[in-house]
Specification:
2 strands; mainly alpha; globular
């Protein structure tokens, strides 16, 4: 079979597949850079592999939209509603570090430090430099009056991102804790 005949047959098969599958092909939205973003991936990862960052990737995915809703609910103090969304995200991806961290934060705010710490430990066991989990765990250690462990979380943050928001916030809380203990 000649190369040109194979090319024609291949193109015909592709066209037939497109016509047969029709609308079941994944849709794509266009980002400002012109690189299509897949809106069909609920398993989009929030971080680059090995990243300590707690920032979402730039892709607009159902996962990221749901995560953003949960964070907005947390900021409004609606922890139980946020937890419903976070649990759904964790059901889809049991090692979603950002969702696990936020779930721990919800438990912390609801006065359940043991559950909160269990989620922070789960995050830190797979991503030891996760910024949010280190900050939140450090703050929880301060609430539990365990300054040495809070300072260990600060040291991790200093190594991961000295000067970042998470480091600065935990450092300020440790300084305030020490001043309150002196006074």
């Amino acid at each position: 079979m000649s190369a040109s005949l194979r090319a024609v047959l291949g193109a015909s098969l592709m066209l037939g597949a497109v016509l047969l599958l029709g609308s079941s092909l994944p849709t794509r939205a266009q980002d400002p850079g012109g690189n299509g973003l897949n809106l069909q991936n609920p398993y989009a990862q929030p971080n680059a592999p090995g990243s300590g960052s707690s920032k979402l990737n730039e892709q607009i995915t159902p996962r990221n939209e749901e995560y953003a809703k949960a964070v907005a609910l947390i900021q409004d103090g609606q922890y139980n509603d946020a937890m419903l969304i976070l649990n759904k995200l964790i059901a889809m991806d049991p090692i979603d570090a950002d969702a696990l961290n936020q779930l721990g934060f919800c438990y912390q705010k609801l006065g359940q430090p043991g559950k909160a710490m269990s989620y922070y430990k789960k995050v830190l066991s797979t991503k030891p430099e996760h910024l949010g989990a280190n900050e939140n765990a450090g703050e929880l250690f301060l609430e539990m009056k365990d300054l040495p462990k809070a300072e260990k979380r600060l040291a991790v943050l200093e190594g991961a991102c000295a000067g970042c928001q998470e480091y600065n916030q935990l450092k300020a809380k440790i300084v305030a804790y020490k001043l309150a203990a002196q006074g």
